[in-house]
Amino acid sequence: MSRPTDSERGARLALDICDQQIRQPDLFPGALDVGFWLEIHHAAVAELLDADLLRQAVTA
What we know:
The structure is a single chain. The protein is an all-alpha fold. It has one domain (6-59). Helices cover 73% and strands 0% of the residues. The protein has helices spanning 6-23, 34-59. α1 packs antiparallel against α2 (34-59).
């Protein structure tokens, strides 16, 4: 299995932050609205899916 790319590491970090912001918005006063974090979450998931598809194509 190949090493994760910088983009994958960044996407995973974004997912972790989004999960915290979405699940516990009251712990982060003055934080951005949930809709913003959902968009970031969707972009991070899309990046991870793209990286996985690329990895599958290269190894096939």
